[in-house]
Amino acid sequence: MASIAVALSKDLPNGRVMRAIVSEQDLVVWRSKSGILSAWENRCPHRGMRLSHGFVRGEALACMYHGWHYDKSATCRYIPAHPELEPPETIRAQEFSSIEKGGLIWVSVDGSLEEPLIDENLTPLRSINFQCASKTVQEVITKSTKLAGDTDPFNFTTKAAGYHHWVLFSEKKELNLHLFFHELPNNACKIHALIDKDCPAQIQKQISRMMESWRRSAETDYEVSAK
Amino acid sequence: MSALDHAKQYWYPVSMLDSIPAFPIVKTTRVLGMDISITRQADGKITVMQGDEQWQVQEIYDHLWTSPSEAPKPIFDIPEANESDRRFVPCGLVRVRCSPLRAVENFLDIAHFPFVHTDILGSEPHTEVEPYSVDIDADKDEVIATKVKFFQPQAAKSASDGIITDYVYRVPSPMNAILYKTCPTRDDVQDVIAIFVQPIDEETCDVWPWMALYDDDSTMADMIEFQQLIFLQDRSILENQVPTKLPLDPKMEIPTRADLTSIAYRRWLKRRGALYGALLNTSDNSVAAE
Amino acid sequence: MSFTLYDYALSGNCYKIRLFANILNIDYERIAVEFYPGADHRSEKMLAISPAGTLPILTTDDIVLSETSAMLFWIARNYDAPDHWWPEQDLTAQANILQWMGFSSDLTATIGQGRLHALFQTPIDKDKMIKGGRAALRKIEAHLSEQSFDGCSFLTGNKPTIADIACFPYVALSPDVGANIGFDHDDYPAIRNWIYAMKSLDGFIPMPGIYAMHELKDHEIDYGSQKSAKAGASK
Q1: Between 2.60.40.10, 3.30.450.40, 1.20.1050.10, 2.60.120.10, what CATH number should domain C91-208 receive?
Q2: How far is the C-alpha of A3 from the C-alpha of A97, rounded, in Å?
Q3: Does the predicted TM-score (pTM) go above 0.80?
Q4: What totals of helices (H) and strands (E) does chain B contain, helices first?
Q5: Which of A37, B8, B231, C212 is spaced 20 to 30 Å from C87 by Cα?
Q6: Cα(C206)–Cα(C208) distance, rounded to whole angstroms?
Q7: Do B158 and B197 share a structural domain?
Q8: From the CA atom positions of chain A, what is the Rg in Å?
């Protein structure tokens, strides 16, 4: 399995923490005050608390439960209950590889970290959640691009349709819309969407609403076929 | 003996006494994965039925307790419940999606006060946990933690500076815990706070906090609200511990000296086979995303 | 004393008023009412004060309010310098604020009710609550995303208004309702960023389920000179 895009870079500013799930692996993804990115198992080795509820102090991630601090190497460096104690090096969170490219945060949970082949100059739009599998969403996108006529403001055509990465091209607006599919447990998925050039807020809103419309269709299709 | 059979030997709280509806309204709830119905009969007597089977009941500590066993172990004693000058404060239930044992263990922990109960029960930089003692009371077979001290910023409304609060903890049965803490208004007595945990199943529980306080000033609403506020802060933690069940294998979760009570509690559970809501082996360790 | 607030610490609606009063640094009298388990808000004594039978209640000698949107408006007009939380001269902004104040009652009816059920096992139509709550979260997520395209961090612009105060509590409290029902903030990056912006406001206070901003406290550990950190951890 390759690297999976788990979020738009802009949605994780410096000093912030989020949760991501890749292939059933629960992850905390966080960025230190100076901007260093990390992805670890979402579990404090002390009492099992999800580290994604924690908080960033400088270059460390602290667990919300007892404030144990972990540095960028995932090693526990400070236990507030014992301020004088130097914690044993063995107390560490499990690390996974993460990388940032093209406005996206990528994580790999199987040890490999292929450099994603992606244009460096994408403009992030938004990440959007679906309560159905990405295959269902992809079918809806295919259907809706075929149905879109000349009156459609974009009239997107599918330029590339890989397993995780689709590119839709709009000749009218001269832009590429990049969709990165992120499969989640329990038949859910996310799309992380980016555009290949700066465009006015109005166009960004139109694309955002178009994705909302895909979701309405995809989740209806999903509900019907699930019955 | 299976974990469930072991758990069946104990008494469990299933309602506050004063919220059992009048005849003929039936109140339903769940204990150890079994649905039960609670009825106040026309003559005022309270019965608990699980299907066709009638369970034993007793009314104590302001709650209705029941047990699936025909000969349950005697319920633990709280001598302070007989001190008539205390105010007894049952606080209702709070549903938590965690093992009943995780709820008890969190109640025994003080190191989380500065981060979870910030500016109430603790605050940075006063995070240090001084050494304290933990024993097993041989007569009662209870876990007892003594000489527990912690700095509290607002132990009393009137206090402008923080005070060092003393705690004693008791675990008289696997799903109940009692603490004794410095009473802000009197030097000669201690306040009593307990949690009685109703195991809905191994990964869900209803927690019934109960207090026996010396407090002549606060309204009932104030006292209940304070306890609910504290417990709701804990709830956000308890619903995010992975795995949901309490791991008894020390390799799975790393303790420190501040966790002596928790270590003793986990060992005590393991020794007596109180495994309902517990994970015994690392191989059971399922920490994948839900 | 400015006003009296009949309050319940666990209520997201009551928290709106406590939060806003704290942000504006207003002193007021607080009276705790036992919402649960006693249901004292529906006692004869409380109904005599406010027939609505809900919490919070804001009273002065002249006024009794039971709707939080009305309270936020009343507080903003009384205590805030104009042009901030209720932009006095800006009709468009006012209309947008009223839109989101209205929407905030959808949050109470779905997430608020779902949370009461999750905490206290109060009866509820669970499917309807989950569908409604998810729809509400998606609506606010989509709007906040669109706001971000315009470079705005809050619901109606670049500054917070009483609309943000009105919507914040039940959005922030949604994980209390349950896991795997689409109420976790992990699904909503724009909401996550907005919550962070709200928690960063001067005068922000937490409530159970909404943590304090520990990251803003000045206890950073400098690993190069851990001694200085230790000196701070006095006994």
Answers
A1: 1.20.1050.10
A2: 9
A3: yes
A4: 5, 16
A5: C212
A6: 7
A7: yes
A8: 20
Angle, alpha carbons B235-B212-B216 (nearest 5°): 110
Q: Which residue has the tokens 């949970």?
A: A109
Residues 186 through 205 of chain A touching chain B, CB cutoff 8 Å: none
Domains within chain A, CATH numbers bracketed: 4-108 (2.102.10.10), 123-226 (3.30.310.80)
Residues A1-29 pLDDT 10s: 579 999 999 999 999 999 999 999 999 99
**pLDDT digits 0-9 by tens, A54-79:** 999 999 999 999 999 999 999 999 99
Q: Which positions in chain B have a beta carbon within 8 angstroms of at least one beta carbon in chain C?
A: 16, 19, 90-95, 97, 115, 118-119, 124-128, 206, 219-222, 224-226, 228-229, 232-233, 235-236, 239, 290
- Report the phi/psi class of residue C82: left, alpha or beta, with left for phi > 0 and alpha for psi in -120 to 50: beta
Select the residue of B16, B90, B93 nearest C121 (Cβ to Cβ). B93
What's the longest Cα–Cα distance across chain C? 63
Q: What's the domain count of chain B? A: 2
Task: Quote the ipTM score.
Answer: 0.94
How far is it, in rounded angstroms, from Cα A95 to Cα A70? 11
- A109-124 burial: b if 16+ Cβ within 10 Å, else e: beeeeeebebeeebeb
Q: Do B93 and C235 touch (CB under 8 A)?
A: no
Alpha helices per DSSP H over chain A: 134-147, 201-226
Strands C29-32 and C4-7: parallel
Residue B39 maps to a domain: yes
Least CB-CB distance to C37: which of B19, B219, B236? B19
With tokens 């605050």, the residue in question is B123
Angle at C97 between CA C93 and CA C99, to 5 degrees: 120
